[in-house]
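User: My advisor, Dr. K., asked me to get a structural model of this assembly before our group meeting. I'm new to this, so sorry if the format is off. These are the inputs:
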Amino acid sequence: MTQPPDYNIIEKAAARIRPYIHRTPVMASHNLNKMVGAEIYFKCENLQKAGAFKTRGACNAVFLIEDTDLEKGVCTHSSGNHAAALARAAALRNTKAYIVMPDNSSKVKIAAVKQYGGEITFCSPNLKSREDTLKKVIEKTGALEIHPYNDYRIIAGQATAAKELIEDVENMDIIMAPVGGGGLLSGTALSAFYYSPKTKVIAAEPAGADDAYRSFYEGKFIPSKNPDTIADGLLTSLGTLTYPIITKYVDEIIRVKEESIVRAMKLIWERMKIIIEPSSAVPLAAILENQSNFKNKRIGIILSGGNVDLDKLPWFTTKY
Amino acid sequence: MTQPPDYNIIEKAAARIRPYIHRTPVMASHNLNKMVGAEIYFKCENLQKAGAFKTRGACNAVFLIEDTDLEKGVCTHSSGNHAAALARAAALRNTKAYIVMPDNSSKVKIAAVKQYGGEITFCSPNLKSREDTLKKVIEKTGALEIHPYNDYRIIAGQATAAKELIEDVENMDIIMAPVGGGGLLSGTALSAFYYSPKTKVIAAEPAGADDAYRSFYEGKFIPSKNPDTIADGLLTSLGTLTYPIITKYVDEIIRVKEESIVRAMKLIWERMKIIIEPSSAVPLAAILENQSNFKNKRIGIILSGGNVDLDKLPWFTTKY
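Assistant: The format is fine. Below is the predicted structure of the whole assembly, which you can bring to the meeting.
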């Protein structure tokens, strides 16, 4: 794929991955809506296989590869949900997944990768060590690299979450997604463009990792320097493929405070009785911080994932 | 109603409450099943309106009352989910709900009652004070008492959860529910009898509050003395109406340890990404403690509710 996914590509991705993913439910809370003054529909990718939307992109990429090219397996570096999703997709194709993970990755994420049969190589927790280690893994194994977001196959897979949400909820004024590397946001924006062009696309980003915000509004690609946020899925910078899509198809990016993320996360746990990870709470945090702008709007939010270390919950370990 | 609910009564209850409740989803986890060696289907009453199955019984009881009899409102004593469910049902009928709550009730439960417009009178945390205070409330207001479980209208409402589960999952070997006062268990056993007579009904009870176990196996009604368990919804003793139904229609009662309840609760949070309260975890705890007895069985479990104080999670506050 050399062009951003279009209507046909997204349709094909949806058909390709259908047997291997959940069509996740869309949930709403009357009380939460009353509290916020808007009508919010949550697309529950926290209830997705392997606990995150990443399953969509990983399945689409891995199932696009020919049998003969898959013999040596696939590989990636990831501290998070893409790692488990890729391990699962590889297992479904009866091939190996080699995952390079920083040695400070959460034990929950490590356990998830192992559970799906992924083979882990640990590295130091910085981009250089991740890339160097992955390079060595590729030299040794000949595995195909599947990047977590800077890959049109991945973006097409992630687009299917918003596609389903648009099918289930008519006439949304706004669709929101968090932004880290931009795979989910790119896919969401493309699906909105093709399936619901009147719906505005608003991204939400932690102020402590605001490379997408700065790149978007300053009109040039500015990678993160020392990003710091509780939303551990959003530490990465945009990619060369996601940045142009976001520039073209996203309407607005909102930055949010850490305490709003924790508040939004706890609200969703309390009111919806579902478990989401901090990254998933960032769009609701943006609404809470800017309530008047969202008044009476009909809003779809992609809850990106639910992989949390239950022994380290932010309202116990931080001051928020 | 002077007889336990039969097929027709349960059918009518289901039709009566349908507009006011969620048809809750049935969820399963491939990994959890693999771990346990059984096929478990969870009926998610934690996602029910007001966060618990209690909404079913409360709606059925309140919507059975004639308008003229409802003018002075309804009342109950309850520290928990029945209180919020009754307040909600009363609000739906545009009448008042007077709730007597022990002054040590959790702030989450108090907030839930207030949110639905219930009028709270606090009392000391013992049965005598609860009953005396409720008597005074009735003298003052003339409100109708709706008991949390010892009422056939309530039992018929609770039966609809198992009815839906049986409609959604064919050929279950076993259906399980926790037991406290026995409203949910009675309803579950009656629905199994009428809709899926080949399915065994197994109850699970905390060893620290095992009045149902002892009453069931000793063949006489033995109320709890100083019950103590983390499963705060299961502290009450069986009632005069629930005890005979359970004796007749339940196949087995299993007692479980506190640490198994906490383990099962955390497992469901981790694997299913949903929030359940400790009482909901008791059936899975019974399976974990007796795994070989459940091997390869097809099991339905009613997850009773999801109202938890997120600031007091058992794996932070206890040693389990």
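One thing worth pointing out at the meeting: The interface with chain A takes residues 25, 27, 31, 46-47, 51, 108, 115, 266, 269-270, 273-276, 306, 310-311, 313, 315-316 of chain B (CB under 8 Å).

User: Perfect, thanks a lot.
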